[in-house]
Amino acid sequence: MSSREQTFRNISDTAIWAAIYRGRENERPNGLFRDPFATRLAGERGRQIAGAMKSHDRYEWAWIMRTVLFDRFIAEEVAQDVDMVVNLAAGLDTRPYRMALPPTLRWIEVDFPPLIDYKEEILRKERPGCALERVRLDLADEGARRDLFRRLAGSAKRALVVTEGLLIYLTPEQAGSLARDLAAPPAFQRWVFDLASPGLLRLLQRQVGAALDAAAAPLKFAPAEGPAFFESYGWKTLKVRTPFKEASRTKRLPLFLRLFALFPERDRPRGKQIWSGVCLMEKSGR
Length: 286
Prior knowledge:
Elements: H1 13-27, H2 38-52, H3 60-78, E1 84-88, H4 95-98, E2 106-111, H5 113-122, E3 131-136, H6 142-153, E4 159-163, H7 172-183, E5 188-196, H8 198-214, E6 235-241, H9 243-249, E7 276-283
Parallel strand pairs: 1-2, 1-4, 2-3, 4-5
Antiparallel strand pairs: 5-7, 6-7
Helix pairs in contact: 1-2, 1-3, 3-9
């Protein structure tokens, strides 16, 4: 990558960044999951980003554990009669191809048109294991997304919403608005997302903030109250799992962090704590 070229061109490049790490996990003999499509999706642009972000590789475990925890929550919910998964800002996710999913499950991916066009071209010869539909939509268009949510909920009995790697790019107002819109359709019963603490947000801003700011994709959302932020928008917390503890359990933590893993796990951030969690929420009926 030339010195004049931005590390990230836009927010969609962060999906390529995530695919880099999934591709590496696929190459491990003891990989925690298999994603045979990730390296192909990352492509040459992925190799450029990997070179520019090499110093961030020490946090590869966090990316991998986030994927593992989302996989686990999705598998558990699908086993409990979820008939639709709505993946918002789906990026280059390949779960419909790589996970064991029932063929009757409807999986909806929503993202920007150029990203979906690129993904469909790369995966055009592959077959998903469930009924896959892709929707080209800017989720910032509130009217269009509400129309979409109503349409999807009208043909589902019990839907799971997935937003992996999305909320941190929203303002608190945008996150609250999205939560309220997701709580409106009766069929949208569960929601899984990842969340950062203010302490982690500040750390990430120091490390990668400049590159993301240059791509008009600044990191913004990290509520001090953790998942409780969403209670006033119609959601209650069912489960929270931290990538940190999962990395400790699977012996993926760097040596210098292993001592901290001995402390009890917390389901929400405290003060300036550096914390992240993958949260499963249920509609509260408010």
